[in-house]
Design a protein that fits this description.
- The N and C termini lie far apart (48 Å).
- The longest helix has 20 residues.
- Among the domains are: 48 residues, no CATH class; 162 residues, Ribonuclease H-like superfamily/Ribonuclease H (Nucleotidyltransferase, domain 5, 2-Layer Sandwich), CATH 3.30.420.10.
- The strands form three sheets. Strands 4, 5, 6, 7, 8 and 9 form a six-stranded mixed sheet that branches. A three-stranded antiparallel sheet has the order 1-2-3, with no helix packed on it. The chain has a two-stranded antiparallel ribbon with strand order 10-11.
- Helix content is 39%, strand content 15%.
- It is of the alpha+beta class.
- It contains eleven helices and eleven strands.
Length: 349
């Protein structure tokens, strides 16, 4: 069987994004998406769908959310608007990831397709014919916008929770003053064995419907307060909360009115409940970060957790996810700027 699949795999690797998408449509029986004839018109319709005023042909003010806006001429071929309340002027792209971008909207859509296929930054740059630095900035601007979707997720039903750990990484860091340890030469193990401050704790929760949350909370072992801050407001009351034997979860379940199902040490399940889904979640997350992307800097780890949640865990088809990604990240409120991406704190806790 492996010998029969090998030539097919090799053939698929030589296809571009559009061809891979067409193959996925054939395999899943999905209908092809509507062809975008005018990308700019499509973008304007998308903005109006989420931010239209009562007049219906212009977005509301991104500065004060007022609907009392009027058209205010053109600059560089782009329609401008002015708010009658705060007197600020703006364009269609204000407070979106497209603000200040020097590329076309259809190129950004193509980049989203590359991300849906989990291409590396270099592969995305080659496919979209842009520089590696632009590809890096675009990836994190898109993932910053996707964080807004992640922040709205509330889990219910049966939720499995556990923590996973990543080694501190200062990949790409050129400033020795912010390093909290001696740099590793081409990777290597931590200087301290076991769970220590050289490991970043990432608590994660996932339910059976494909919804998931995850975020860096601390270095080393988490305290009850740190785990509670991560869980608070993210799980509906009355849900089943399935965890390992960490004592902190007892207090968290009580504070959030959750039915706590604890898997004791040495056990794999408690009745019909287990934590296999969250263990699989952690395995897939580490496989993507460590194997596919060859490690990421700690300051970008939260973005890649959200990336994993959307690409690998959500149950929608790849075609549906691509549509959601394009519509959401291009129109949601996001002030991320490319020149600020690498200026983030080395350890975001």
């Amino acid at each position: 069987m492996k010998m029969k699949l090998k030539p097919i795999v090799e053939m698929l690797r030589n296809l571009n994004v559009d061809e891979l998408t067409e193959v996925m449509m054939i395999l899943t029986g999905s209908k092809p998406e509507t062809v975008i004839v005018d990308p700019i018109k499509s973008f304007k319709e998308l903005i109006l769908k989420r931010k239209a005023t009562s007049l219906g042909d212009r977005p509301y003010c991104p500065h004060c959310q007022s609907h009392r806006v009027v058209k205010n001429g053109h600059k560089d071929g782009r329609q401008r608007f002015i708010c009658k309340d705060c007197k600020h002027t703006y364009t269609w792209t204000n407070n979106t990831i497209l603000y200040g971008m020097k590329i076309s909207y259809d190129t950004l859509l193509k980049y989203c397709d590359c991300m849906m296929h989990k291409m590396t930054i270099r592969q995305c740059a080659t496919c979209c014919r842009i520089s590696k630095s632009s590809s890096f900035d675009w990836r994190h601007k898109i993932l910053d916008a996707l964080q807004n979707m992640h922040n709205e997720v509330v889990l219910n039903g049966i939720i499995e929770s556990d923590e996973t750990y990543f080694g501190l990484s200062f990949k790409g860091c050129k400033n020795p003053d912010i390093l909290t340890r001696l740099p590793h030469k081409r990777g290597g193990s931590n200087h301290v064995r076991g769970i220590s401050d050289e490991l970043v704790c990432v608590p994660c929760s996932v339910n059976l419907d494909g919804l998931s949350i995850g975020k860096i909370t601390n270095l080393g072992r988490p305290t009850t307060d740190e785990l509670s801050g991560f869980i608070k407001g993210r799980i509906e009351e009355g849900s089943f909360f399935v965890t390992d034997s960490l004592n902190s979860y007892d207090q968290i379940a009580e504070d959030n009115n959750l039915t706590h199902i604890k898997i004791e040490n040495g056990k794999h399940k408690n009745g019909m409940f287990n934590i296999q889904k969250i263990n699989s979640y952690h395995s897939e997350l580490k496989r993507m970060i460590n194997d596919l992307f060859k490690g990421v800097a700690t300051k970008y780890l939260n973005n890649y957790v959200v990336y994993h949640n959307f690409i690998n865990i959500a149950k929608e088809s790849i075609i549906e996810k691509a549509k959601i990604l394009k519509e959401f990240v291009c129109s949601t409120l996001c002030n991320s700027r490319g020149y600020k991406v690498n200026l983030r704190d080395a350890i975001p806790v």
